[in-house]
Structure formats: C-alpha cells, structure tokens
C-alpha cells in the first residue's frame, strides 16, 4: 500500500497509525497485551539518553569507517531511530522513513542481521529526495520480534547517471540521474547480497568509495540495532515502548504549548521562488504556503501548498506528497523552534514524530514542484525543500510581527572532476554552506550548513588528494544582508587548478537573494567566476584550465530590521573584523568611518580580500556627526511604503519589473 492503510503483517497504519497490540494515550502510558504500563519518569530520561547516545554512536562509526570525502569528511549523512510503529524517536538529525521498507517487506518475516536498502525517489514515500541519497535500514529485535529500526542515509559520491556525481543539472528525466533501487534486502541474516552490491558498484564511477561507504553504514546500523536491543533486554518491551510514547507525547505537548500558542489564529499567505531549473530560461518557480492556524483543531496548523508552480522540466522537483507528507512535516517543523522564548530553549527542543499530529498537509494536484509525476527529475530538489523552510519562516513572520529569522540558503554543491597525474579519475565535490538570516535578537551565523555536524573539506586533505591548491578560504565580505541584525556571511573560496578539469555546480540563489525582513535588506547572491568568467548556478562540465582560479562566493543571509538603526559601533566592529567594508558601512548602514586607512568601497580589492588592513592602533572610528547627517538623509530618501520583505535587486529581473511580490506586504 502506497498512500495509507494497514500493513496486515506488521499490524500498523503507516504514517503514524496504531499498533494493534495496544492503544496509546497522551498521558504517556501504554495499554499493551502485557497489561497497563506507566512510563516511569526516571526511565524516560534513561531511554531518551540512550536513544541519543545510540544515534551519535552510529553516526560516529560511519564517519570513522566510510571512505568517500562526502560522507567521512563533509559528514553529509545522518542516522535516525524509529519504533515499530514507524515513528521517529530521535531529534538530533532529520532522517528518511521506514514506511517503504515495511510496505514491501512484512515485519513478521524480518530476521536478525537483515539490512534493507533503497534510494528510489518515487518508491521512498517521500523520504529520499534524489538518487545519490542511499538509505540502509536495520530492524531491532527483542524476544524474536521487531521492536524498532535503526536507519542511516547519506549523500554518496556517485550512483551512475549522465555526469560524475549523479546530479546532472540539465536532466529532463530521473533515468538520467543514476541507478534507481527500490527497497531490497541488501543483507539476509548477516550475509551481504553480493549480486546487488556488484550491480551498484558497477554503475558507480567511484566503486571503491561506494562499497566502503555502504559497508560502513550497514555495519554501523547493525551495531546500533544491537545497542538498542540491549535497552529492551534490560528494561522489557512494555516499559521501553511506554517511554517511547512519553517521549513523543512530550514533544507534541511542548510544541503545542510553547510554540504554536504564539501564532495568532487566522490565515496567512506567502511565497518564494526557485530561479532556474537547468532546462528553461530563468524564471520564478513558485512555492506557496497558505497557513491556517486554529488552536481548537486536532492539528492546529494547516499547511496548504496550493499555488505552487507546475513541475519543472529540469531537476528541481521534490516528491513530497507521500505518506501524508510525513517527511515534510518533520523537515519543516524545526522552523517552529524560532518561536521559543530564548535561543537556549530553542536548542533544547527536539523534532521527533511528536510534531506530526500538529500539522496537516494539503497538497495540490499531481504535476507540481511538490507533486511531480514519475519520471520527473529530482536531483536538485534542494532548491524546493530548502526554499520551503524559508517560505514557512516567511509566512510565520507575517503572522507574528517578524519574530522569525530572515532567509538563508545554506547548501549548494560545487566541485571539479578530471584525471590526476597518474591518469586516475577523481571527483571532488563539496557542499558549501552560507550565512544564516539575521534574527529578532541577534545577527545571523556565518558559513553554516543545514546538515547536522557538516563541515567543509579540510584544505590539507583536499590539496593532498586532488590536483589543485586552495589559495583562499574565508568569509565573503559584505555578503550578509544589512539590518539592525546583520545576516551571516558566506564563504569566499579560491581554487587554483594544477591540471585541466571540469567544474560543476548545483546552486540556487544566484539571481534571487536571501530575503531580508521587517526592514532588513537582502543578502548577496551566490557567484562563481573562473578567471573572471561568471558561471551559472547550474553547471555540469564547464572546462577549467591548469593555472586558472575558480572563485566561489556563497550566499549571505538576509538582514533583520532597519540597518539605519544598527549601533554604529557594531558597524565599526564589523569593518574592523573584515565582515563589512567601509563602503558598505557608509552605503548600507549610513555609518561614516574615519582613520588613517582608506577602507575602500564595498567592491574594492580590499573588500574582496575579506581581511582588515589595519591594526589595533588604527582601528576605524565612527564620525558621529557625519553619521547622523548621512542617516538623516537616507531616512528622508527612503520610500514610506516599503514592503515587509526585501528580495534584493534580482527579483525585478525575473518578475517583469515588479519591485516586490503582492504577498510581501503584511
């Protein structure tokens, strides 16, 4: 069954149904076949800590034993723990779903040592976004029965397809994107399926890395299953499952009481856009959310995607309308944490299956960016699912008077491929972050990444493995959106190639900027230049010659609040720290600086260097009188009816000259 119903063998309703062995109530106890069991508060803490520990242990094991830079070094993977009712129990990482496994393999027929595998986007119930994301799932046993699942999925080097890396930016069909594997049993009672592994590695340009990564993930999940089995052995199934119910119920009630209560009832609408799909000319690909809030309803939040654009010809589609949208519910729910009373409290809030009953998803008809029809390509689906995070933040900002961060675009793929000095093929692909949006209480963070614990590839490792030099890795000055609270900065990275190669990029926000909110300004967009030649955001095989320099500047987050209200001394500190140029201080913040150095305009070589060219003795000083005069003039010249959101100068180029969208006013 694809879209709901009961798995007769497993005794459960997918997407959060009821285990026929016993019902559950919200008080945290479970009526099971063994009798009524109340979750002991102390045991709940023990179980919750054990789940977190097992999840971290699985991820650590994968990081230490995997072979590909994408998994081992960049940490573009995550683990998750789910109960037998397919509910995600952990909140440290987002993860894929178990639904496609139990759909195709009855739980009662699973055996200890089994490992299941899949990466088929359209047969994953919405849990897999593109084919390079490979997922392994291991059942946990107690008393001869399945009691839970340990899962890991991550972005692998190559699974075939038209281009190295399996992300062809101009794909028109999923068949161009790589090898599709529906749910299969990859290990049978501890014995690997060598035929399946041979097929997968034969289709990969990086067979050794793929084999090593899969072995690491399977072994780590099997280890995690043993650890979790020990928890059941020690405390018993009924007690542990009662704790699972309590953990999930706590999340439900915490989100309802602390976060959703801050959203006024009513209906609010906003939209944002992807700018290109790799096939058609750049245009606005709309993702729209109509948010209806009714605190008396069982699901207080209704997220309606009606108004989202038709599916794209190119690979920016995301198959999200499966299993009642349960993956997207957990993907979007972390945005709600911004409503917490303090940043410290926000960091304490996990996102597990407890958020699912609070949200109702309403999808448009088949054939949209979020409801694509097979075999629509999906490899660049990050353009949609990352934008949806921002759309939800934007519509919540309208509903709450701006108590949401400005926009961010903290993931894009860039890389090079070719042959090394020994004639061996190589692929260097990196997932670079960007700046996060300014918040109502603080500046955004620099160079963050949406994947938990992710990082850029270390320079020393890169230079020892691939034929290029990293001549610069720093912050992109002036990239953060100006605001009362400034947007975080993106990367400025320069690679000098030592051999001829090909450059690739899968990136959005190269025309449209990360938006600012409540008077804040948009950040700078993503740019790539090769010896001064500008590159598009979607590139498969742009040639780069030995000796040429690839310069990548990633996105800055949007600003929050009026930049003319920012403390001039904070602006001077940003100039001193190399985050804002003196020209940017003047033009964006109305702050005039004086000192022995000519700090230069925003686009000067000094600004590009990202470094402060003065020492402690000659730091920039604020000219208070000149600043007051300049700010007064800038305020007088500002339009009196500015919209709530600032999308930056790229929006009019794609909107037919409109300065802002109709939904941008509060």
TrEMBL record:
Lineage, opening ranks: Bacteria, Bacillati, Actinomycetota, Actinomycetes, Streptosporangiales
Keywords: Hydrolase
Segments of skewed composition (Low complexity): 15-33, 639-659
A GO MF label: 5-oxoprolinase (ATP-hydrolyzing) activity
Keyword Hydrolase tagged: yes
Superkingdom assignment: Bacteria
PANTHER family with a match to the protein in the record: 5-OXOPROLINASE RELATED, HYPOTHETICAL 5-OXOPROLINASE (EUROFUNG)-RELATED
Name under which the protein is recorded: N-methylhydantoinase B
Any one GO CC term of the record: cytosol
Region ranges (Disordered): 1-33, 639-666
Domain Hydantoinase B/oxoprolinase: 40-563
Organism: Streptosporangium becharense
EC number: 3.5.2.14
Any GO BP: glutathione metabolic process
């Amino acid at each position: 069954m694809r879209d709901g119903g009961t798995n007769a063998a497993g005794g459960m309703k997918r997407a959060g149904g009821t285990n026929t062995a016993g019902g559950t109530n919200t008080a945290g106890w479970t009526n099971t076949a063994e009798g009524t069991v109340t979750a002991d508060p102390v045991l709940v803490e023990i179980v919750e800590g054990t789940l977190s520990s097992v999840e971290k242990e699985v991820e650590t094991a994968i990081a230490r034993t995997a072979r590909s830079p994408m998994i081992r070094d960049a940490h573009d993977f995550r683990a998750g723990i789910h109960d037998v009712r397919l509910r995600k129990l952990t909140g440290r990482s987002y993860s894929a779903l178990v639904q496609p496994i139990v759909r195709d393999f009855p739980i009662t027929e699973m055996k200890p040592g089994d490992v299941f595998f899949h990466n088929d986007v359209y047969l994953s119930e919405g849990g897999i976004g593109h084919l390079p994301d490979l997922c392994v799932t291991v059942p946990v046993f107690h008393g001869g029965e399945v009691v839970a699942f340990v899962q890991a999925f991550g972005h692998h080097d190559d699974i075939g397809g038209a281009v190295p890396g399996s992300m062809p930016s101009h794909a028109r069909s999923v068949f161009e994107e790589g090898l599709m594997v529906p749910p299969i049993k990859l290990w049978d009672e501890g014995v690997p399926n060598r035929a399946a592994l041979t097929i997968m590695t034969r289709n990969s340009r990086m067979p050794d890395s793929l084999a090593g990564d899969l072995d690491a993930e399977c072994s780590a999940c099997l280890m995690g299953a043993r650890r979790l089995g020990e928890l059941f052995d020690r405390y018993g199934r009924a007690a542990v499952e009662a704790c699972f119910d309590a953990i999930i119920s706590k999340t439900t009630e915490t989100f309802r009481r602390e976060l959703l209560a801050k959203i006024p009832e009513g209906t609010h609408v906003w939209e944002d856009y992807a700018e290109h799909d790799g096939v058609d000319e750049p245009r606005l690909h709309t993702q729209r959310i109509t948010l209806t809030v009714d605190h008396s309803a069982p699901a207080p939040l209704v997220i309606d995607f009606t108004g989202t654009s038709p599916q794209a010809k190119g690979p920016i589609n995301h198959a999200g309308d499966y299993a009642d949208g349960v993956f997207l519910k957990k993907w979007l729910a972390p945005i709600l944490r911004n409503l917490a009373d303090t940043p410290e409290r926000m960091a304490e809030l996990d996102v597990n299956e407890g958020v699912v009953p609070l949200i109702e998803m309403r999808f448009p008809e088949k054939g949209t960016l979020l409801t694509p029809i097979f075999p629509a390509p999906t490899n660049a689906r990050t353009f949609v699912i990352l934008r949806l995070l921002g759309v939800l933040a934007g519509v919540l900002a309208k509903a709450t008077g701006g108590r949401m961060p400005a926009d961010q675009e903290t993931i894009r793929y860039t890389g090079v491929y070719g042959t090394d000095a020994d004639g061996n093929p190589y692929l260097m692909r990196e997932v670079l972050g960007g700046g996060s949006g300014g918040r109502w209480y603080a500046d955004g963070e620099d160079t963050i990444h949406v994947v938990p614990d992710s990082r850029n590839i270390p320079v020393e490792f890169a230079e020892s493995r691939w034929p290029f030099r990293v001549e610069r890795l720093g912050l992109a000055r002036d990239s953060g959106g100006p605001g009362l609270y400034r947007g975080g900065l993106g990367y400025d990275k320069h690679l000098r190639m030592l051999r001829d190669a090909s450059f690739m990029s899968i990136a959005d926000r190269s025309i449209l900027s990360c938006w600012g909110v409540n008077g804040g300004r948009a950040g700078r967009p993503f740019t790539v230049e090769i010896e001064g030649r500008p590159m598009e955001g979607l590139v498969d095989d742009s040639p780069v010659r030995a000796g040429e320099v690839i310069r990548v500047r990633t996105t800055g987050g949007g600003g929050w609040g009026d930049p003319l209200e920012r403390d001039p001394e904070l602006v001077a500190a940003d100039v001193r720290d190399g985050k804002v140029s003196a020209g940017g201080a003047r033009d964006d913040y109305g702050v005039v600086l004086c000192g022995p150095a000519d700090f230069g305009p925003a686009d000067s070589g000094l600004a590009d260097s990202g470094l402060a060219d003065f020492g402690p003795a000659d730091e920039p000083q604020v000219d208070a009188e000149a600043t007051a005069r300049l700010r007064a003039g800038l305020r007088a010249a500002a339009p009196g009816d500015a919209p709530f959101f600032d999308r930056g100068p790229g929006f009019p180029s794609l909107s037919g000259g409109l300065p802002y969208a109709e939904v941008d006013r509060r």
